[in-house]
Amino acid sequence: MLTYDAISVLGDNYVWIISNDDSSNVAVVDPGIGPPVVSWLELNGKRPTSILITHGHHDHTGGIADLVERYAPKVFAPRRDKVAGATDEVTATEEVYDPELNLRFKVLDVPGHTSGHVAYVGEGIALTGDALFAGGCGRVFQGTFEQMYDSLRQLAALPAETIFYCAHEYTVANLRFALEVEPDNPELMTWLDSAHRIRAADLSTLPSTIGLELRANPFLRCEIPSVVEAAGRHVGHSVDPGAATFEVIRRWKDGWRG
């Protein structure tokens, strides 16, 4: 059975460690810094046989060199982001496979946050990096708003029971913004109350599920009338559902200081 453990680094990043109960080998997801990951591995008697990188930002790749020097794992990384230290560059339609863990993921291209961002999907799990967050999504840096919208639609099309692990603890802030968009969404009110209690106990609000996001994450609800209408109110004129609404909501969040 695979388990997923979070190492909190760099303030609000998570490095995910994928373990198999029957093995001392693990996979490491988006190691933004090396020493805390090495400490966790040594304390738990684990050794990484693979590293999975979702995109090329330094807070997701900064620990690669330390881990490669110490353990020599394979490093799977998106082809278009040209990640230093990658041993296997991947893109959509390809698979990553770690035989030591019997771990197999399909690669999805989800550009927008970066031009080459990928997600890893398999066995009811998705690793979404900075594309999809609990209650939110990543900023659009290198891609276009339409690309990001299409990427999120890919993730939204996964089965509702899909459990996803993202790379940042942004849930409370994301949900507070989501309530600006949909103040009457009861799912959001309940979720935010739960997230506050979880963070007060210094625990992680992750993972989330695609089903919950479809009910409460405004960036996955850009065809829902309440979200479309909120986008229109924000800019003072009607906005088309879909990509146009997404761009308004994403730009609104970029400037939001609530």
Report helical residue fraction: 25-40%
Low-confidence stretches: none
- Total helical elements: 9
Q: Rg from C-alpha positions?
A: 18 Å
| Content of β-strand | 25-35%
Determine the mean pLDDT. 97
How would a textbook summarize the main sheet?
A: 6 strands, mixed
Structural class: alpha/beta
Shape: globular
Order of strands in the sheet with the most strands? 1-2-3-4-5-6
Count of beta strands = 14
What series of H and E elements makes up the topology?
A: EEEHEHHEEEEEEEEHEHHEHHH
Straight-line N-to-C gap: 41 Å
Describe the structure.
This protein is an alpha/beta fold. The protein is 35% helix and 26% strand. The chain has a six-stranded mixed sheet, with helices on one face. A six-stranded mixed sheet has the order 7-8-9-10-13-14. The chain has a two-stranded antiparallel ribbon with strand order 11-12. Helix 4 (145-156) packs across helix 9 (243-255), helix 5 (171-181) runs antiparallel to helix 6 and helix 8 crosses helix 9 (243-255). The N and C termini lie far apart (41 Å).
Gist of the model:
By secondary structure, the chain is α/β, with parallel strands linked by helices. The chain has helices at 35-43, 58-61, 64-71, 145-156, 171-181, 186-200, 210-216, 225-235, 243-255; strands at 2-9, 13-20, 25-29, 47-52, 74-78, 88-90, 95-98, 103-109, 118-122, 125-129, 132-133, 136-137, 163-166, 208-209. It has a 6-stranded mixed β-sheet with strand order 1-2-3-4-5-6, with helices on one face. It has a 6-stranded mixed β-sheet with strand order 7-8-9-10-13-14. A two-stranded antiparallel ribbon has the order 11-12.
